[in-house]
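input
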Amino acid sequence: MQLKFDEKGLITAVMQDAKTQEVLMVAYMNETAFRKTVETGKAHFFSRSRNKIWLKGETSGHVQTVKQILTDCDRDCLLLLVEQEGGACHLGYRTCFVHKVTPSGDTDGVTQEKVFNPDSVYDKT
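output
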């Protein structure tokens, strides 16, 4: 079975907590990031803004250990069931999905407390 990477060589990857089923984050993988993920059991992604492969947790220590990888029926999207250490969100939340959307389409605050202080984890220089 072949995965279907898009015209930029990327495939969407959704990370979900293997125990709680909570959706943690969405990122992109190129073939190299996918292979590194399979080989190491740790989630690797391709950063479109930095144009490089990155290991989830390489700076924060909040790694994602992969328990299972699934693909959708079209094979153009991945679902990774992971064990999350700490928070998945670079803003300090457990999950990136924290903003509630109102019926008008606006966002209405956050739905979680932060689990870590991003200023103490990421170098802002």
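quick obs: Strands lie at 11-17, 23-29, 44-47, 52-55, 64-71, 77-84, 99-101, 107-110.
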